[in-house]
Amino acid sequence: PDVNVTLHSNQSSDPLFIYNGVQVLEIQLNGAGSKSTYTIQITKAVELQKLEVFLDTNDKPCNSSMLSPMFNPDTSNYEMTVPVTTTFIKFTPYVAQGVTVTVEGLPVTSGFQSEPIELRMGRNEIIIAVVTADSSMKKYVIVVTRLQPVDANGQPVRSTLERLVVTGGVMQPPFDPNTFNYVMDVGDSVATTTITVGLVAVDVSCQIQKENQTPRKVTPDDDEASRAWELFSGANTFKVLAEDVSHMPVTYTLV
């Protein structure tokens, strides 16, 4: 809002509130038969005041040292590494009055947690945007690396799936990325099943095939393969084929 203040020589004004973004101050000097105007443009940086990070269902923010570098409102890019067991992350941003903030495009109220963000194995880039009423914007980029699983010898596990869910019965054994053959018995009344997979990274490609039918491709943003598959009496064989840019294909078989 506009504020008009009249002052005399050598008199100081009361403090003026400075909003985030760009503001213009005009100072008019009125003398005997003359008037001069001075314009001062003040730009206050758009920034996060504070940022808290929460892993999974933990109610306490994680140690600030997990962010590298440690959070500073003037620093825009960060990295952090989380254990393989961490499946999602949340952020609590703090901003000044009149400033809005989004986490991955979704509005978040200052001082409140964002919606959970699922973490895939490997690299996850998360963007927090701060915007003022005059559309000034600052983005913070946080790259979260979820560690890959390792075997008993500490060697990386060759895995392309982190989840395999089948409806209609209980899959045996329970899914493990390094177990490639499964069976599941279903009752006579079960006519269809759905198969949903979780890919460990965005560069993993996957398709599901039932015997001689056309394979259905799976992508991180597409659940086409989760449509119902018709089940016939007897054995129904499904193959889940997954591969990334550096590995030979991995095949999971379900009967």
What's the helix and strand layout?
Elements: E1 21-31, E2 34-44, E3 50-55, E4 77-82, E5 88-94, E6 100-103, E7 106-108, E8 117-118, E9 122-131, E10 137-146, E11 161-166, E12 181-182, E13 192-193, E14 195-199, E15 205-210, E16 216-218, E17 229-230, E18 238-243, E19 250-254
Parallel strand pairs: 4-10, 12-19
Antiparallel strand pairs: 1-2, 3-5, 5-8, 6-7, 6-9, 9-10, 11-14, 13-17, 15-16, 15-18, 18-19
Overview of the molecule:
The chain is an all-beta fold. Helix content is 0%, strand content 42%. The protein has no helices and 19 strands. It has strands spanning 21-31, 34-44, 50-55, 77-82, 88-94, 100-103, 106-108, 117-118, 122-131, 137-146, 161-166, 181-182, 192-193, 195-199, 205-210, 216-218, 229-230, 238-243, 250-254. It has a 5-stranded mixed β-sheet with strand order 4-10-9-6-7, with no helix packed on it. A 5-stranded mixed β-sheet has the order 12-19-18-15-16, with no helix packed on it. Strands 3-5-8 form a 3-stranded antiparallel β-sheet, with no helix packed on it. Strand 9 (122-131) and strand 10 form a beta hairpin. The radius of gyration is 28 Å and the shape is elongated. The termini are far apart. The mean pLDDT is 81.
